[in-house]
């Protein structure tokens, strides 16, 4: 797949676990200043939310990947069903609405969707819980 003109530095497909954040440049304050005392600049995560959390094309790419035959086979093999791709399409629509019309409802819907996606990613942690004590029959011989 070829990159669009001007987008060679940005990958065309992002993983679902990746959340791209826009950053802004803010002046340094207090202890953040360098030794010479010049104001300088420091990069912080944008908290004003005047831009979507991802590029709208990323939502489109995720939707197209979700609808692909390869992903459908993989999802069926892994989970035994069809993937639900409508959230990616709804996020793309909300992102475009946010960019074009500065819609507050689209902004809230997109931010809520990203928050849910991040919570699912954090809650879907396949790490085992540590034992406090060994099992009661740990010393017995194994069956052969």
UniProtKB/TrEMBL annotation:
Alphabetized Pfam families for the sequence? PANTS-like
Instruction: Kindly give the InterPro entries that the UniProt entry links to this protein.
Output: Pants/Emi1-like
Tell me, in one coarse class, where this protein mainly resides.
other
One GO cellular component assignment for this chain's record is: synaptic cleft
Where is this protein found?
Synaptic cleft
| Location of region: Disordered | 109-144
**Compositional bias per record (Basic and acidic residues), positions renumbered to this chain:** 134-144
Family classification: Belongs to the UPF0545 family.
Descriptive protein name: Synaptic plasticity regulator PANTS
User: What organism does the record attribute this protein to?
Assistant: Aquarana catesbeiana (American bullfrog)
């Amino acid at each position: 797949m070829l990159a669009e003109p001007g987008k060679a530095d940005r990958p065309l497909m992002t993983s679902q676990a990746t959340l791209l954040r826009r950053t802004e440049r803010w002046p340094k304050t207090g202890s953040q200043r360098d030794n010479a005392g010049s104001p300088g600049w420091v990069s912080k995560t944008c908290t004003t939310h005047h831009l979507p959390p991802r590029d709208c094309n990323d939502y489109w790419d995720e939707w197209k990947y979700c609808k692909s035959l390869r992903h459908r086979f993989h999802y069926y093999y892994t989970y035994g069903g069809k993937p639900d791709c409508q959230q990616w399409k709804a996020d793309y629509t909300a992102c475009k609405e946010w960019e074009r019309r500065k819609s507050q409802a689209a902004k809230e819907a997109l931010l809520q969707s990203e928050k849910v996606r991040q919570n699912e990613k954090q809650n879907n942690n396949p790490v085992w819980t540590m034992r406090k004590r060994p099992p009661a029959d740990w010393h017995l011989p194994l069956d052969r």
